[in-house]
Amino acid sequence: MGIGKRASLTDLHLRTAMEQSPLGTAILGPDGRYLLVNAAWNALWALGEGGPPEDSSVFENERLRAMGLTPYLEECRQNGEVTTPILFCEATPETAPRWVRALIYPVRDEAGTLLEMGLVLEDFTERKALEDQLAYRAFHDSLTGLPNRALFLDRLRHGLSRAKRQAEQGAAGRVALLYMDLDDFKRFNDSLGHNAGDQLLVGVAERIAARVRLGDTVARFGGDEFAMLLEDLEDVGYAADVAERIKRDLSAPFEVDGHEAVVTTSIGIVMAALGEDYAEDYAEGYTEELMRRADIAMYRSKGEGKDRHEVFSSGMNHSLARLGLEENLRKAIGRGELRVYYQPQVLISTGEVIGFEALVRWEHPERGLLAPSEFIYLAEETGMIVPLGRWVLSEACRQAHIFRRQIPPATPSRMSVNLSTRQFRHPELIEEVSAILSETATDPLDVALEITESVMMEKGPRAVDILGALKNLGVTLVMDDFGTGYSSITYLKSFPVDILKIDRSIVEGMDEDPEDRAVVSATIGFAHALGLDVVAEGVETTGELDELRSIGCDIAQGYYWSRPCSSEKIMELLAAGSNPQSDRSVAASMPVTTVVAPRA
Questions:
Q1: What single DSSP character describes residue 314?
Q2: Strand order in the sheet with 265-271
Q3: Neighbouring C-beta atoms of residue 67, cutoff 10 Å
Q4: Which has the closest alpha carbon to 287: 138, 146, 159, 171?
Q5: Is pLDDT of 415 > 60?
Q6: Beta strands 555-557 and 533-537, pairing class
Q7: Distance CA 221, CA 223 (A)
Q8: pLDDT tens column, 223-243
Q9: Which distant-in-sequence residues (6+ apart) come within 8 Å of 297 by Cβ?
């Protein structure tokens, strides 16, 4: 085949490929006149089969010129280099906007002379709409349509940059950040359901958005948390006014699924610094620092009674570490970071292990394994002890069933859970205990609840009612830490308890201190006279054990036998099923005691 025929055949192949292409394609001369267009080009511009007018030029196309494409063609003709693809929008009053993606390329001979230009256009409208939708979803809350945390932080960074420039020019233009959390929203959600909760959140979002200026930003961070960015402020007074107006607007009832819902909110306010340390403050991470400060102020407002706002002050800085711990603790249950460790309880008369005390631990992602003394106080102060204790009770019941499969059927197995002060005061305590027993299919006769004597004494006559209601569930009651509070025999007689637990502070060193020995002996004596069993905790030496045995103590626990260990280790011991031959051996008959109060 000759060269001419091969060239002709190649040209035919190229024309065929161009004609079959779904992209609008035009081959243009150096002057911009149309040399060849395909069917997709004609369809893109509704030209029909005839195509562009004969000898017409792309530079005469008013639609391409209005889109802004012709300058790029001119650049290709003059310089031969155009960075493509380029996205253009064609918008007219009569039609919806249409997005077109363009590729422009020159065709030159060996000497560099421009022979032709190629212009390929793709209708990008649907894809652009999809990309815009995905981008919107990435930066907006799907429920309320408000900006999400990512977009809010981006706008906060830009707002801080503008404020910095204004400050350098001597103009007033401060930035305020408001962080708000609805009070008791979880209770509303649990009562009426998540659909009703979502409706309420949408209504709250609408009222908040209506209360800020056009240039301000309102965002939802998830759950019932919202944030506001207010710019160009002279002082914190305007931000405080906005907070007051929001609280007032939310006080009007919401209509949700036929119910009227009244909402209150706690708001924290922080102003971005514009002092001498401004440049340092606006270093990397300052936006997150502002968020932490607003969060601190918000939690301060909750701590002061809710339905209020607090402005962050430097005096709150000491709360940063505590706040971080508190935030992490709130998430620990959901993240599965809490652990239960078990310590054997031994029947002193035989040395046989007849139970375990389960001690809660926190597997902190950064600080490692935390003892109860490092976080239980915080859970008690904030009220988190209630859901935490609820989880511990449920977990203990679940684990007891796993242990039970390793225990001989005839062996009794009783599980105890320590109730903290906050839990004992909780108005739904009885219902929650009953529900957990039912959900875990646990026999109430296999459960004992431990309450410290100080808690019982604090509630006085009311304690008797609460204890009676618990007793009616069929559970066993234990007076814990006896000897550290009132230690009143009279009150002990009035409380329907079954077991007395002597605190380690009295047991420690009793083999060397006659007074401690006398106290423990007397306690055991009157407990037995009342028909109560006695548990001594904190036994660490042979001397202490010998004294307890000699004065008739029933059960003991402490480092003398074992430190607390994981459930996996307990399962190994249960699977071994060894028969104890000494005080330090571990047997297979194991009631379980679960404790959420601070212990070692």
A1: G
A2: 217-222, 225-233, 174-182, 265-271, 309-311
A3: 18
A4: 159
A5: yes
A6: parallel
A7: 7
A8: 899 999 999 888 888 999 999
A9: 179, 267, 268, 269, 270, 309, 310, 311, 312, 316
